[in-house]
Amino acid sequence: MIAQAIHTIKDELPQGVKLVAVSKFHPAEAIREAYDAGQRLFGESRPQEFEAKARMLPEDIEWHFIGHLQTNKLKMVLPYVSMVQSVDSGHLLEAIDKWCRANGKVMDVLLELHLGAEETKQGFMAGEIESILSERQAFAGVRFRGLMGMATNTDDESLIRADFARISSFFQQLRSKFPIFSEFNELSIGMSHDWKIAVEYGATYIRVGTSIFGERKY
Ligand SMILES: *Cc1c(COP(=O)(O)O)cnc(C)c1O
After folding, report:
1. Which of 33, 5, 29, 30 is nearest to 19 (CA)?
2. pLDDT, mean of residues 140-151
3. Would the CB of 82 count as within 6 Å of ligand 1?
4. pTM
5. Given ligand 1 and candidates 45, 147, 153, which is best to mutate, with the most ligand atoms within 8 Å of its CB?
């Protein structure tokens, strides 16, 4: 079932759009099943659970962290991941930079743009992202690779489209404003219920959990 779901999604994905299989709350055996179906890129969002799974699964898995990350949990996460997609505060960015410089790493990061109406949502305002990118030289331990966003959680497709349109045009704007910045080329938008729409708006990563692994049991 997991293998079938992965193949179905991959068959529909245009070239250049990468599938992040979101395995949070699912056991290592489920990840192994996806791995055996050829999937190598996985997303996790809970540090403790993630570290335990990363240690028991094959080393050629590429892990991306996609959840809210507290700075006191960095050491459970950063040794294992190749990208943090969910950088949502200056405090976190500075802590990742510091950890990486101390550990001889350079971490790929996406900056999370606040989207949607809900007050509780994580993420930066557009202006904050511009300031960070203007000062990117200060972050030697970090490579800025692009933006991440979560659309409003709704069945109203027009709201989802409005969110994706906004992040997509901001992304293009940043890419032309910082032209020497060619590695800033990843846009992570789209989940199980909206990834097909996200692809229309230029997603380079989609993050899909439920459609691959089934419902999560919290
Ligand atoms: C859980 C999660 C996903 C996957 O959501 P599904 O609806 O299960 O596909 C994607 N992105 C983030 C940031 C998540 O936390």
Report:
1. 5
2. 97
3. no
4. 0.97
5. 45
